TrEMBL record:
Catalytic activity: (R)-4'-phosphopantothenate + L-cysteine + CTP = N-[(R)-4-phosphopantothenoyl]-L-cysteine + CMP + diphosphate + H(+); N-[(R)-4-phosphopantothenoyl]-L-cysteine + H(+) = (R)-4'-phosphopantetheine + CO2
Keyword Magnesium: yes
Native source organism of the sequence: Azospirillum thermophilum
Stated role: Catalyzes two steps in the biosynthesis of coenzyme A. In the first step cysteine is conjugated to 4'-phosphopantothenate to form 4-phosphopantothenoylcysteine, in the latter compound is decarboxylated to form 4'-phosphopantotheine.
UniProt protein name: Coenzyme A biosynthesis bifunctional protein CoaBC
Interval of the full protein contained in this chain: 198 to 420 of 420
Length: 223
């Protein structure tokens, strides 16, 4: 077959994508993390690359293969993720799909914690930097389009609309992660795209299809 018509509307654009969980060390062998699989973030990176963007993917530990055509920076912690994102700027668009751990252990132990010595340890937690809010701050290096995710339970649209304002990002992709929806680790996703002018609800579809549709919306924004 001859090659089909090339559709590369994002050629010449730079994209930054975060994906996966972060791992926050407790000691050299233990960490705090969450259930993010990285499927949606990796699919978005691949979809943006397919549309011609030059994509940097900053990802926490996942089982996903590196998406074709992307520069991949593996990280463990939220602080490493932020540093890798800042190093990847400038970018035209940033998509923060990572499930960043909200807290880290204040003073991770340099040696393995042992049971002997009187009862379980107490962990003092401190808040991690907010990568999406940092990238959204006004300034010369702010990507023209900053997109966040909001994994919510309950009143998904209300929480996500408030989150968009709080973070200062342009768009929020909101999804319902209540038990039974199968979103975490599953291959399907039911999302709402929230922009300044309101919310658009998409039908349930595969994470690859969500990624492709989001990449097309991004291309439309820059057209
Ligand atoms: N995010 C981020 N850095 C953080 C926390 C969150 O970049 N330290 C990004 C996520 O990648 C996502 C968006 O912010 O795009 C929303 O994440 P979420 O966990 O829903 O927001 P939080 O502000 O942490 O609120 P919550 O208390 O609901 O967890
Ligand atoms: Ca959070």
């Amino acid at each position: 077959l001859p090659p089909g018509p090339v559709h590369r509307p994002l050629a010449g654009r730079r994209a930054l994508v975060t994906s996966g969980p972060t791992h926050e060390p407790i000691d050299p062998v233990r960490y705090i993390a969450n259930r993010s699989s990285g499927k949606q973030g990796h699919a978005i990176a691949a979809a943006l690359a397919r549309l011609g963007a030059s994509v940097t993917l900053v990802t926490g530990p996942t089982r996903e293969p590196d998406p074709p055509g992307c520069t991949v920076h593996p990280v463990e912690t939220a602080r490493e993720m932020l540093a890798a994102c800042e190093a990847a700027l400038p970018a035209d668009v940033a998509v923060c799909a990572a499930a960043v751990a909200d807290w880290r252990v204040a003073d991770a132990a340099e040696r393995k914690l042992k049971k002997e010595g009187g009862g379980p340890p107490s962990l003092v937690l401190v808040e991690n930097p907010d990568i999406l809010a940092t990238l959204s701050q006004p300034g010369a290096r702010r990507p023209a389009l900053v997109i966040g995710f909001a994994a919510e339970t309950g009143d998904v649209l209300a929480y996500a609309t408030a989150k968009r304002a709080r973070k200062g990002c342009d768009w929020i992709v909101a999804n319902d992660v209540s038990p039974g929806t199968g979103t975490f680790g599953g291959s399907e996703n039911t999302v709402h795209l929230i922009r300044a002018d309101g919310a658009e609800s998409w039908p349930t579809m595969g994470k690859d299809a969500v990624a492709a549709r989001l990449a097309e919306a991004i291309a439309g924004h820059f057209a």
